[in-house]
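To the structural biology subgroup,

Please find below the input and predicted structure for Peptidase C14 caspase domain-containing protein, which we are adding to the shared reference set this quarter. The sequence is reproduced verbatim from the submission form. If anyone notices a discrepancy with their own records, reply to this email rather than editing the shared folder directly, so we keep one authoritative version.
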Amino acid sequence: MSGNNHIMMVARGVVCGKCRHRLSIPTTNSTEVKCPTCNNMNPIPNYEQFANKDRSIQKLIVKAKEKISGNDLSSSQKPDSLNKKPSPLSSSSETRPAGKRALLIGVTYKRKHKLKGTINDVKSMRELLILNFGFKEENILVLTEQETEPELIPTKKNILKSLKWLVKGCQAGDSLVFYFSGHGISQPDFEGDERDGFAENICPVDFMTEGMIVDNDINSTIVWPLKKGVTLHAIVDACHSGTVLDLEHVYNRQEKKWDDNSPLSGNARKHPDGGLAISLSACLDNQVAADTTKPQISASKPFDVYKEHFVL
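Predicted structure (tokenized):
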């Protein structure tokens, strides 16, 4: 850039655009200053205008950092809730949930052990249930970290509470769906009822401090209460999830038959109260989900997997 009108700011002074002589800015309200060396007239910068621009740039930088770090709390950036208000959990404790209802859980673990696709998985499952299987929005309970209501965050406490909601007051004709997308972990069984010596667990968002949810607890919460005529379909997209519902029969794909998975301890109960539970898991108990594309099927009682159609 060149020309008689070109100037440079130097520590709240100006440099002549013609001879490069440094000039002092007069204290008057003048808009120009004359160079004593070459007599060139130089415009005086509006420093307040530059300061305002600088502040605006700083605000943009701060805003960008907030978005990158996930701390942007502006209402326009908050994702829409996947629960219809009021949420199913907010209903009166005396009211029996609808006969066709679902619990969908997606955990991203934002701070550590982060997963990227779990919330999209939940959105897709929710859409599938509504559009293809006739579930109503108000009868689908969704837990994700994107929800703003504290009771809809997938903590251990909230997940256990929601599992109880899913089977509450179930009766003949009810169709229940449990979906979980997140981390799964296998650990040694200390109760002596697992045939392979390991218990399967799902990880809530706060599992590092509150612990995991063990397969025995999942079984006693959503399998035991299933009365005759009630069907539960569970879809668990997690590692080591083959028998995470602890159902008594596991399908053997290679031999095309059902294997016995009943507890070794005769005192341990794993069966429902006359109802049917079917579980589709992402992998076997000793696998991670990324290593296979073949789900593990387990059930409370055997059925013909090649003829039976899943009706939700």
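Summary notes: Residues 1-11, 69-76 have pLDDT under 50 and may be disordered. The first helix runs from residue 47 to 69.

Regards,
Lab coordination
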